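Students often ask what a holo structure prediction actually looks like on paper. The answer is less mysterious than it sounds. You provide the chain, you provide the ligand, and the output is a string of discrete structure tokens encoding the 3D arrangement of the protein together with magnesium ion.
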Amino acid sequence: MVTGERGAGAAPTAGAHAAQRAGEGPRVITILGATGSIGRSTMDLVTRAPEAYRVEALTAHRSAERLAAEARRVGARLAVVADPDCYGALKDALAGSGVEAAAGPEAVVEAARRPADWVMAAIVGAAGLAPTLAAAEQGRIVAFANKECLVCAGTLMLDLVRRHGATLLPVDSEHNAIFQVFDFARPHAIRRIILTASGGPFRTFDRTAMAGVSAAQAVAHPVWAMGAKISVDSATMMNKGLEVIEAHFLFDMPSERIDVLIHPQSVVHSLVEYRDGSVLAQLGSPDMRTPIAFTLAWPDRIEAPIEPLDLARVAQLSFEAPDPERFPALRLARAALQSGGTAPTILNAANEVAVEAFLNDRIGFLDIERVVDGCLGNMAHDPPRDLDDIWSVDAETRHTARALIAEL
Ligand code: NAD
Ligand code: MG
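The corresponding structure tokens follow.
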């Protein structure tokens, strides 16, 4: 639990946000990354209970038509595309709707600042950092999906959240599961947390087979339908590495007390082990609308259109240890967390550039880890003094990663 009101380690119950809201009208919400996988799942929940929400702003990268249609559908006040070249298309598509249109990265940040009770941070990658920080600076409840921004800016981001009285509610299914079973009043009673991982589409592949996989194969996840970037991250298991770092910051746990367990059915979303040997887990059908609904209603619960978990039909839950030889990304992420400073920023930026190159068929699947390893090895990991240091390390890493890719 990370919140400015109660401080890390406090119980996540009946917060001031919830108290303020009691008896008030619809919850005012903004969705950053409204056209993506998480954004669309959020919109699905919102449109099922239109009386409960008023949409302030929706943002997207380039999909102007889709964004405009969604903004019209829910009567949003503002729609923003991050790419300025898409402004004309957005404006045309919104003509006569009464929805304000804007474009450019700064306009996305402005959208995040607009008055709202709840902001969904579901942009992919470090591109989401500035708007997510802007929402936190306004002291909002931030439903937090965009893990890359916490990996990128870690302690600085948490400082800002605390200073401005914002509340981060994890959307990532594993972190949402831990949030639900973590005794924030007694963190000393916790021995370790265990993140489950589906293992991705190449769970049973050897390295030779992995060397030849295509982007299409990597994006076809066996359980979850997600955006392309996180799907590739799941295939390399860098996603779990990013999640170890995310869990470190969200739950104030050192790397050695965060374990990873492969669980292909993705029914047990994660576990917390207490000192007395009790292990508490959160289970559910693999559907991101459950953790999103949890954050939308928090600290209450709402109906969500989720297929009930039928354990008799699932019949078997299986578990295995991750294989560090076949999936070195997890080791790289732990090493970056251990090094501290800007090492996680470098890990994240290098991975973003490498995944994009893989998706564009410019490098092979196993080159992703080579690029990340190369950047971590080539660059200094000094502690960042401020966010400007983060931006410059992020930019420098992208430059280094592109140079490494050009040499491959
Ligand atoms: P996605 O690619 O489907 O959607 C990304 C969204 O961000 C889109 O709306 C896109 O228009 C917007 N966007 C992309 N680049 C942008 C930019 N430069 N500036 C502004 N907006 C930009 O991704 P997703 O799968 O929905 O994932 C979103 C985030 O949630 C990621 O950080 C991911 O790791 C995290 N997450 C996703 C899932 C999932 O099931 N999809 C699960 C856990 C965590
Ligand atoms: Mg996850």
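The two ends are 42 Å apart (CA to CA).
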